[in-house]
Amino acid sequence: MIGYWKEFFFDPGDPETRRYLVDYIRWMAYAYPVFLMQLPLVTLILFVTFRPEYKSLNRAVAKLRAQVRADGPMAPADWMAILLFVLILLSWIFASEVVGMGTVAILGAAAFLISSLVKWEDVNWGVVLLYAAAISLGVQMKDTGAARWIAESFIALLTPIGADHGIGLWAAVSALTTGVTNTMSNGAAVAVLGPIVLKVATVAGESPIVIGFITAVSSSFAYLTVVGTPACTIVFAAGYLKTGDFLTAGWRMVLMSTAVMLIAAAMYWPLLGV
């Protein structure tokens, strides 16, 4: 989304368009409080939906502590991994606006490979190529006018129910993104939908920053399916959950997360400037 904002709206000759250069600090200012507001509510939903079988985890914690003691002190490679992670995070925060977040990520991956902390065969370059192809497709949709045509058609569908502007449009964009992200990874969902929703914002006279953040945040609402996000797939692979369990708790979490995000979009984000 950061790349799309810069590609579609930033003009080096127009100082007014600098607001579309979103750096990592500004991203955290918009998105991280939304996560913090959702966290206790998600916990409450999960405790109500799935009653805990155990009220105390003391035995599990004791075993974990014993395992940590048995593993001994951290090796030099462990400290090197932590150092590289911190350097990458600091580079994202302080240097991403200059060199770009993607450049920092690639340099970080190269550093892990050069230091032999990660083996070449362990790197999934297919993911990098997938996102690169999806973003290229998005840019072409913008350049050919396909994104605008889809955006105008989307607005036409929402106009009869009065959801072609304001919070109704925000909710519709969130619902669209949530539906797509539960069938593919969140990064791919934003790569595909980004040009469309930003054109929707332009056609509807809405802020591309607000619509962009709504799309990016909603892409994390992959609670409904096992394949929606790798996190769900990893948990499901443990064998303790059924596919229906994700839907049982997921629809409640989607409604709660959408409500919290829309409240933040209406009351908190304007304080940061949009």
Count of DSSP-assigned helices = 12
Can you summarize the main beta sheet? Answer: none
Order of helices and strands: HHHHHHHHHHHH
Uncertain spans: none
Strand content: under 5%
What is the radius of gyration?
21 Å
Distance between the termini: 15 Å
Query: Quick one: overall form?
Result: globular
Number of domains: 2
Structural class: mainly alpha
Average pLDDT score: 86
Instruction: Assign a percent range to the helix content.
Output: over 70%
The count of β-strands is 0
Based on the model shown, name its key terms:
mainly alpha; single chain; 274 residues
In short, what is this structure?
Helix content is 74%, strand content 0%.
Give the topology:
Elements: H1 2-9, H2 24-49, H3 58-71, H4 76-99, H5 101-114, H6 125-144, H7 146-158, H8 166-181, H9 186-204, H10 208-218, H11 230-237, H12 243-272
Describe this structure in words.
With 274 residues, the chain is mainly alpha-helical. The protein folds into two domains: 2-53 and 124-272, no CATH class; 73-123. 74% of the residues lie in helices and 0% in strands. The protein contains twelve helices and no strands. The protein has helices at residues 2-9, 24-49, 58-71, 76-99, 101-114, 125-144, 146-158, 166-181, 186-204, 208-218, 230-237, 243-272. Helix 4 (76-99) runs antiparallel to helix 5, helix 6 (125-144) packs parallel to helix 9 (186-204) and helix 8 (166-181) runs parallel beside helix 10 (208-218). It is globular. The mean pLDDT is 86.
